[in-house]
Amino acid sequence: MLPLKEKDKAIVQKLLSSGCCARCVLRFCCVRLQAVYRQPPQGTLGELQDFIKPQESAESTGENKSHDAPVPPQTPQCADPPSKRAKLEPSQPEEGAAETVPSVCVVCLGILQELCDTTQALKIAEAVKMEKYEFDSLVLSVSLPAQLCVREHSCWLHVKKEVREKGLLLDKDDVIPLKEAFKWIVQGPIAKELGGVSVVTKSALEVAVEFTHQPTDADCHFLASACPDCFKPTKNKQSVFTRMAVVKALEKISDAKFLRLFACPPPQPSSCCVPQGVHCLHLSVFIAGRYNKFCRSLPQTPWVIDGERRMESSVEELIAAPVLSAFRADGFNFSSSGREDVDVRTLGNGRPFAMELLNPHRARLNHEEMKQLQQSINVSSDKIRVRDLQIVSREAMSRMKEGEEEKTKSYTALIWTRKPIKSEDIAFISDIKELTLDQKTPLRVLHRRALAVRQRVVHSMNVRFMDAHHFHLELKTQAGTYIKEFVHGDFGRTKPNLCELLKTDTDILELDVEVRHKKKVCV
Amino acid sequence: MDETEQKDTEDNAPSVIDRYYTRWYRADMKGKPCEDHCILQHSNRLCVVTLAETHPILHNGRTIKSINYQISDGCSRLKNKVSGKSKRGGQFLTDFAPLCRISCTDETEYTIYSCIRGRLLEVNERILETPSLLLEKPSTEGYIAVILPKFEESKSITENLLNREDFESVVSKRSVAESQPS
C-alpha cells in the first residue's frame, strides 16, 4: 500500500499524465519510505494508477474484505478497460504518452527507471571490485546532468497549482531529491555484491557515478539569457552550465518567466541518460619520516629542464617508489623541512619529510609492515636512508614547514686554501662566536630570488687541520645561512667571509649538513 | 666526511668561477685597442661583467683615481633598484651601454660597457670605496656589474662574444704584432 493520501490524488494524476515515472511521482508526493522505492517500478506504477481511479471503481474497502493485505482494489466494477497491475502496462488512452514500452520519464530521464536496476547496481559494484581497494565502507556520489534540475522545476510548477489548491504546505524543498532516491535504490544491491560493506554518508572511499544526457544539454541554455549573472564564463570549466549555476538561476527566475521559456510539463525525451562509468577515489594517506642523503649528486626533487632530465633520480623518487607500491597509490606530494643542495650530504638523524599518497588502494599498514617498507626503501638504494617511517595525519604535512627559521644547523665542510697553512694559522677560527654575516642573495640563486641582504649568524665553528691546503670546518649556524658563500665570499657579496678571515682565497670542496631539531617530529 | 677522497693538487683545484661560470670575452671594445671585457656567465644565465686580464687599467702599474657610475646627466647606475623575484625596475642595457667611467692617476680614462643585453641587477659599490679591489681582484671582488639577460635570449647573448680559446688566440696575435719590428 502506498503511503499516499486523498489529497495526493490530483498530483499523481497530473504527473502520470505528463510522463513521469512511478518513482518520480512518489518523490513529488514526498514519500520518504525508502522501501517503497525499492519495489519493482512496474508494480508501483500499477498501484498509482489504481490509486487515481475514479471513486466509482470500488474504492471502498468494504468490497475487498477478502484481501487482508493492504492492496488497492483489484477488481474494478466499471466497464472501463481493466486497471493494470503488476505487469508492464499500456496505459489508458487518456494517460497520454506511455506505450507498450515504458517511455523515458520526463523528469529523471531514466535515472529512477532502468538506470538503477540490479544490473546497473551490479555494474557499479563490479567497477569497484576491479580496483581492488581495501575498504569496509564507501560513499556513493552521483553526478547528474544539470538539465534535470530544469525538468524538476518544470514539473514542480506543473503541480504547484494543485498543491496550493489543496492547501498542502508543500515546498519545492520537500520533494525528495532525485539523487537520494537513486541511492536508496542502488545502495542495497551494491553493498550486498561487495560482501557486506556499508554504504554511508562519510567514508574514506568515494564511488562517483556519473550520468550524462547530451540531447537535452541545451535545455539549460535559456537560463543564460534569463539570468545572465549566474553564468560567468570561466576559463577552467568547459561548460558554463554547472549544476550549481543552474540551481541558482532557477531560484532567481520568476515562475511566469520560466513558463514562457520552458515547456511545462517538460517535453518527452527519446532516450535515457547514459552512464559515464564509475570513478573511485580514496582519501589520501600521509606518511612521514626522516631521510639521510649520502650521495653528492642527487637532487631532492627531479631535475628537469626543457623536458630533459639533467640528473638521474632524486630523493623523493627513491623514497616514493617502494611507498607507492606498498600502498598501491596513484601519486604523491613530497614535502620536507628545508632541503639541501644536490652536492651536499645529509647526515645525523636525517631531515624530516612527509608525503601525501594520492588515491591509495591500501590505506592501512601495521607496525611490522611499516618496518618492512622502511627496510625495502633502505635496501633499494645506498644513496639515501629513511628512519622513523610512520603513518601520520594530514596536519603533519603543514607542520613540516613550521619553525624552519628557528632552527640551528650544523655543517661540516672541506675547505681548500690557496696559500699554504699550518695548524696554528687556523686555530683562531674555533674561538669565533656569534659572527654576524651580511649576505647578499648569492649569484647562484639570484635568478629566482629577490635581490636582498640577509643577516645571518654563525654561532660557532671548529677546525680540524688536514694538510697545507686543506682543513675541515665545522659550523653551527642560524637557519638560512649560505655556507658556500661564507667560505668563498661570492665575489665579495657575503661579508665577512672565510677568505677575509684567513687572508687567502678559499673554496669549499665538500659540504655535509647534520639536521638537528628541537622538537621530535610526528607521533 | 669522506677523507679518502683526495682533492686535486693545490694549484689545480678548480675555482668557483671554473666550476660554475663560463668565460666569454669582448676584445677591443668599441674599437679601442686592448679594452677587453670578460663576461662570466653562470649556469643559471646570470652574467657578471669584469675586466679581462689584458685591460689597460690592470697594466703599467696604474692607480685608479675615481670610478663614476653617473654615465649621463639623467642616468646613474647607482640609482638602479630592482625589486621582487622578477627584478622589476632594473635598467635595461644593450651591448654598448656604458656602465661606468674609470679615471686613473695618469690621466687615462676608460669606459666599461655592458657587452650584453639584459637587465642591470647591481653594480659593485665596493670598488667605489676600495678601487684597489679592481686592480687586485678584477675577476672576483673587483667585478663591475651583474646583469640578467632575458630568458629567451640567454643563449643568444653570447653570439657576439669570444670564448676563452678564441680570445686567447686574439691576444696572442697582438703580442706577435707588437713584437714584430715595424
From TrEMBL, chain A:
It is an enzyme of class 5 (isomerase). GO terms for cellular component: mitochondrion; nucleus. Residues 55-95 are annotated as: Disordered. The keyword Repeat does not apply. It is found in: Cytoplasm; Mitochondrion; Nucleus. Its EC number is 5.4.99.25. Pfam families: Pus10_C, Pus10_N_euk. Residues 286-514 form the Pus10-like C-terminal domain. Keywords: Coiled coil, Cytoplasm, Isomerase, Metal-binding, Mitochondrion, Nucleus, tRNA processing, Zinc. It catalyses: uridine(55) in tRNA = pseudouridine(55) in tRNA; uridine(54) in tRNA = pseudouridine(54) in tRNA. It comes from the Eukaryota. InterPro entries: Pus10-like (IPR039894), Pus10-like_C (IPR048741), Pus10_N_euk (IPR048742). Belongs to the pseudouridine synthase Pus10 family. This is tRNA pseudouridine synthase Pus10.
Automatic annotation (TrEMBL), chain B:
Its main location: other. One of its GO terms (cellular component) is growth cone. It holds the Pfam family GCV_H. Keywords: Cell projection, Nucleus. One of its GO terms (molecular function) is actin filament binding. GO terms for biological process: dendrite morphogenesis; regulation of actin filament polymerization; regulation of filopodium assembly. InterPro entries: Abitram, GCV_H/Fam206. The keyword Nucleus applies. It is found in: Cell projection, Dendrite; Cell projection, Growth cone; Cell projection, Lamellipodium; Nucleus speckle. Belongs to the ABITRAM family. This is Protein Abitram.
